[in-house]
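Researcher: Here's my situation. A collaborator sent me these components and asked whether they could plausibly form a single complex. I don't have experimental data yet, so a predicted model of the whole assembly would be a useful starting point for our discussion.
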Amino acid sequence: MNLKRRYLRDRLMQLLVYLGTLVVLVPLFFILYYVFVQGIGALNWEFFTRPPAPPGEEGGGMLPAIVGSLIVDTLALLFAAVFGIAAGILLAEYPDHPLNPVLRLVADVMAGLPAILMGLVAFVLVVQPMGHFSGLSGSVALALIMVPIIIRTTEGVLKLIPWEITEAGLALGLPRWRVILSLVLPAARGGIVTGLMLALARGAGEAAPLIFTAFGNPFLTFNPLEPMDTLPLKLYVYAISPYEDWHRQAWGAALLLAAAIMVTNYLARRAMRS
Amino acid sequence: MPNWLYQRLGDRLFAAVIVLFSLGVVAAAAAIVAVLYFGGREAFATFGFFGFVLGRVWDAVRGQFGAWPPLLGTLITSAAALLLAFFPALSAALFVVEFSSGRLREAVAYLIDLLAALPSVVYGLWGIFVLVPLVRDYVEMPLFTWAAAHAPALLPILGPPTGIGLLSATLVLALMIVPYASALARDALALVPQSQREAMYALGATRWEVIRRVVIPYARAGIFSGVVLALARALGETMAVTMLIGNSVNLPYTLFGPASTMASLIANEFTEAEDDLHLSALIAVGFVLLLIALVTNLIATWMLRRMSHGEGRR
Amino acid sequence: MVRSAFLAFLLLASLGFAGRVQLNGAGATFPYPLYAKYFSVYYKLTGVRVNYQSIGSGGGVRQLFAQTIHFGASDAPLSDEKMAEFEKKFKTPVVHVPTALGAVAVIYNLPGVKEPLKLSGPLLAEIFLGQVRMWNDPKIQAENPGLRLAPLPITVVHRSDGSGTTYIFTEYLSKVSPAWRERVGFGKSVAWPTGLGGKGNEGVAGLVRQTPGAIGYAELIYALQNKIPYAAIKNRAGKYVLPSLESVKAAAAIEDFPKDTRVSLTDTPAPDGYPISSLTWILVHQDLGKNRAYKNRAQAEAMAKLLWWIIHDGQEYNEPLHYARLPEVAVKVTEENLRALRYNGEPLLR
């Protein structure tokens, strides 16, 4: 009797878990399908190689925004990774450090702020002293958004690495720093990469913080000290415009963004596995 | 290199570098707080701190700014979204770690992460064109007509069944925060040592019992981290919510009717605010959001500490 | 490998500093498509790069004050206080340069109604105040004797984000309805007594299109592009006028066009004019040298020449994009204002 009940419960919970997963996956497919259908028509050669064209003209593309996204997002992730992983290490590996309570508080509070406010901060800290807009200031704004995610995931995963690993390293006579760098971090790298990818996804999709920082630019530039365009900025401007062609391109940008992030995610995980 | 140098200096240097970068993070946060505080000061001075936070009127024309309606909206949408998202997020994490393997496992994990990769605007657009008509036609309208016929007293609580409003915004928000909770939960669950599971199985437990009694408790802290991150995301989410919530600062809110949140209010009015007081009020709303994030974090830390007592590596 | 990549990066980055003129401007979203066209054409003509971003009129004004941009753009003229503040800060006044005219259309979703709806200003205000709630209200029926209106509830849709469009619309309502003026007033963001807020013109158009019984307002071009029906509004002369290029241009045919071009065209006295029309302006410092964004005279000259081009040759691009051209009187007045532009005291245009 008891066994049967337990067995039934096991089955029931399994069903609920499957259902719960479906509840998440079904809307996702809906959205993906929708984005794909709307956007695939826009992803042609011009989209990737030409600058934007005014309404009514054929053959506009998103080259400056694509390049801009690559540069701004990569710089942002670099900034955020350096600071975020370091802070995560401090929190997890040096738990008695006096900075920790402040650091943890700070990270979680930053995570809850709307992105547009990070843009404001980057405006005050970077744009105003420089006197003009720049891709760099956009990277700073995005980094501010990415850092808390990276801190939390890095700390979370480092804490779960069994103490035995650290113990073993120390027993071999390795100094603390070597143990962390060569043993603990590699063991945690899957989780750290998860954090980086989550952060990248978050930052790469933001438009609001870039309005007053990267600003946007219809002309192609590789110089982060100049105003730069990004895919989400273009997406947003085009989506709220009245033109069908621009709407199509907006969906194309959305599709490209999602695809690019997923590809990066996949490649990063593959690299970590080896 | 001499051994003592390798050991001691290496440790000192490493620790110093780590601390330096961490200080950078703290400095950045201090900068954020400073910018928000000084930006919002005029509004707080004009209305008083509690006058501002509890003020019910937001009127840019008359220069009257009270943050209570958007505050309420943020609290309602975030809490509701978290409640809605928690079980599916945990289920998805469990599915990936415990109920699947190989290709299926990888695929589902990627798909969940993909939810985080979609820009907020995309959720908003999909919400408007796909979700809102569905919600209006299959949920709100039927409920509304039923209530009109059988329980008219409920009508003021339900509100206008247009599809745009609290309900749709909360649903999309819940979907958006799932990957944050799920990814962290998944990592936590995955790091539970197999030996723990095997021990329970050896005792004759069913799979669910193993999950419930060993895996989840062990991974509790990580799951909780995911929940906190998801909540943080919900508090700050702007674009999708703005496009779906109807943006009304008129209280009382109704279940189906329009509402507003702090993040969407800021996003809506920030670029157009010319008046210094208006801008200051918007930044002050940002400051209030900061305080809320602070309070929820403190509560979460307290809860986490209670959970981790007696556990962990040391 | 890494080193050569880095050097290549530096080289490319330095190309950014090669001597080309780039001007940055920001502001109103309403003229964004038009300016995109202007600046694309101008680049092909002269090689001058103009980067315009539609961050909103308020944002444009603030960035101009912050001297991070070379010119701003706004759908609403600066108030007297703002102008005084500007002059005090920069020791030079701001110059309003009108570029085009647009109309705010009242869009609606009434299934089965084929003819355009007719609405007067006061009735429109009552609808947006939430006082008239059903489409078959006798007041609406009285103005539309030829239409059969269903007992459908009215869903008001307005803008959630601050915008010049809202400014123009609420300014009009304030002029024709004392009740509106009392209760709500006008501005880029107002406290709407009722209704749903959509984000951007597109958001409002989308909501109206999806919701039977909805009424909202958006720039004419959104109504046209989305094929949403829009209403004929009764103007001051008593005629019901549909928004169109002609009726908008007619709205600007007023006497006493002010020297600084800061005129409100809503509730225009012009007999054939559409009553919810407006100019849109570019804003610059009169002495461009006082704006830190200008690094040299070449930039200032380029700006002055650009503005001159916009009000003359550029106007031919307005109508194909459904913006009305500037009336002659506006062009004449603006020529004067442009001739007054300086760079550190030296005139820029002959």
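Model: Some features of this prediction you could bring to your collaborator: Residues 20 and 262 of chain A are 23 Å apart (CA to CA). Chain A touches chain B through 98 residues (CB under 8 Å).
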